Every structure is written in C-alpha cells, then in structure tokens.
Amino acid sequence: MDQFFLDIVQNERPFAWLYQFFLMVLVSMIPFAPIPVIAAFIASNHAFFPGLAINMLGTTLGSFFLFLLSKSLLRHVALKYLTKRQFLTRYLALIEKNGFLAVLLGRIIPVLPSAGINLIAGISNVNLGAFIAATFLGKLPIILAFSLTGHQIAAGNWDTIFIVALYVLALFLIGKKLKRKWSQ
Predict the structure, then answer these.
(1) Residues 6+ away with beta carbon under 8 Å from 50
(2) Which of 87, 160, 167, 169 has the least C-beta neighbours within 10 A?
(3) What does the alpha-carbon distance between residue 36 and residue 43 come to, in Å, rounded to a whole number?
(4) Is 1 a residue whose pLDDT tops 60?
(5) Would you list the DSSP string of 28-89?
(6) Residues 10-28 pLDDT 10s
(7) Which residues fall within 8 angstroms of residue 140, CB to CB, at 6 or more apart?
(8) Distance in angstroms (rounded) separating the CA atoms of residues 21 and 42
(9) Residues 25/57, Cβ–Cβ less than 8 Å
(10) Phi, psi angle pair for 118, to nearest 5°
(11) Which phi-psi region, left, alpha or beta, contains residue 32 (left: φ > 0; alpha: ψ -120 to 50)?
C-alpha cells in the first residue's frame, strides 16, 4: 500500500494525475493539512501548468465540498468551531457583510486555515457563486507559489524558492497581525 501511494504521488502510475487531484480534494478538507508540501511535491512531478491545475482545481473542489457539508451535515461542527475563538465571530460578521471580499481576503492572507474559512462561510449567508469565485481567486496566489516552489525544487533553482519563501512569510506575518487585531 505504501508503495502504491508513493507511485501515485511520484506520478509513476497510469492516471496518477487523477489520483493526485483527488488527494488535493481530500487534503483541502482537512484542517492544518500539509497542503504546501503536497502541492509542491505534485507540481515537482509535472510540467508547471498541469501541476498548478491539479493543485488549484483539487483545492477549490475540496473547499466547495466542505462549504456544502458545513451548510448541512457539519453545521454543528462549524458553529462549535466558531464559538471557541472570539476573532472568528468578527470574521463571520465580515462574511455576513461582504462574503466575497471576506473569503477572498481570508484565502489571500492566511488568517485562518482554509478548512476554517470553508466551515464559517458555509454557516453564513454567502452565496455559492461568490464563494467559489473568491476561493479560486484567493487560492491562486498561494497555490501558484507552492506549485512554483515544487517545480523549481525539481529544477534545482533555489533563487526562485527564496523569493517565494519571502512572499509566503510576508503573507503569514500579515495574517498574524490581522488575527491579533481581530482578537482584540
């Protein structure tokens, strides 16, 4: 089983790209999953644009599924998640006010785990079209960065990796500052 999984991730099986796509769908539904590592690894085993497409479409579809699940089956889990953290109630208020913008900013600046955004958006009044558009546009910069990193690691180009790491660090620090501000 371990060898089969490794063959799939390393793109050594027929239709490995399809398995990798479904892996990204599944992983994007799990809070604190190692999406950057998996996205970089998948991208390192493909040409740049196919790797980016697998990562983007997989994470977007996974977000869509968790959004739908939180509207129905996981509503109580989402509410419990929300009530544990004070800054999340402020984020919910922002989503209620402007769902597209809140989801977009939550994706671009990592204030919350992606699964948390999906759960909170699911219990809010944000419509499905706005959620999908904001998710796709908001995930694009970071998934692009992870995919580029994986592709550049495979090519041995460490200069680009350093620049991408600085970009991700800047986003993380901005997100940390926003989270602190919302917690007050």
Answers:
(1) 17
(2) 169
(3) 10
(4) no
(5) TTSTT--HHHHHHHHHHTS-HHHHHHHHHHHHHHHHHHHHHHHHTTTHHHHHHHHHH-HHHH
(6) 656 667 788 889 999 999 9
(7) 56
(8) 9
(9) no
(10) -60, -45
(11) left
Give the amino acid at 84: K
How many other C-beta atoms can be found within 10 angstroms of the C-beta atom of residue 76?
A: 10
pTM of the model as a whole: 0.83
Question: Could you give the angle at which helices 35-44 and 48-71 cross, rounded to 10 degrees?
Answer: 150
**Tally of CB atoms within 10 A around 36:** 16
Token pair recorded at residue 150 = 């994986």
**Comparing C-alpha atoms, which of 122, 105, 128, 124 is closest to residue 181?**
105
Cβ pair 110, 175 in contact under 8 A: yes
pLDDT of residue 8: 58
Cα 14 from Cα 159, distance rounded (Å): 33
The Cα 87–Cα 54 span in angstroms is 33
- Biggest CA–CA distance in the chain, Å, is 52
